[in-house]
Amino acid sequence: MLMMKSGLYRPQRLVSLRALPAWTSIAATPAGGLDIGAMVRLAEVERSAVVRQAAPVIADTLLTHSNVRVRNVATIGGNLAHGDPHMDLPPVLIALGASVRAVGPGGERDIPIEALFTGYMTTVLGNDELIAALHVPAQSGRRAAYAKITARTADDWPALGIAVSVGAPNGAIAEVRIAIGAATETAMRLPQTEALLAGRHLDDKLLREAGRCAAAEAPVVGDLHGSAAYKRVLVEVHLRRALQKALAA
Fold it and tell me: 188 and 97, same structural domain?
């Protein structure tokens, strides 16, 4: 709808997928993960007790995603297929290790969210493929947080969106996934910063070191929401805060 409004896309026909039951459901998997149909509206995801039980960071993130009117109409599949780097969900889902199931005439394939986006508003989906479902694996023993920084209101497009998912069973960080969006041309992980944190106990010194590493690693770009220099400062500060928030959860 956004692309149609802007005149970038002018389809001759529109086909509704609303009558496909499997595409409009939210279900917990036996392992404790989530399967969400592509046609599930964002407001349904936000209010779902199943989602809040399995991955509360998703529901929390949606509270400030655009506004309630948009969330009542927009779908999870459409949100991801749109490929806009300013969306809130991609970095969160990358941090959670989520994937989508794409379908087309050639069959089905599973695509990790971190591999879905190839550039500004572009994805690996073929012209004859659709996202059918989102899968979020079980998050047992892991804690996650998302930091959204906007230049204006809380539900505005972010200048930076950064998500972390951390497992620290004995105090040391056993596994960490860090994903960034909005400040970069596409949502992505920060593997160098993840490697810096792995196996170490988090303290103020390490937090500052990780913040500097993330700011240097992320290929930030300036736009109407802030200059590249400004966004690097945001990355450095808010990675630290996101890590602290996740470990305090």
Answer: no
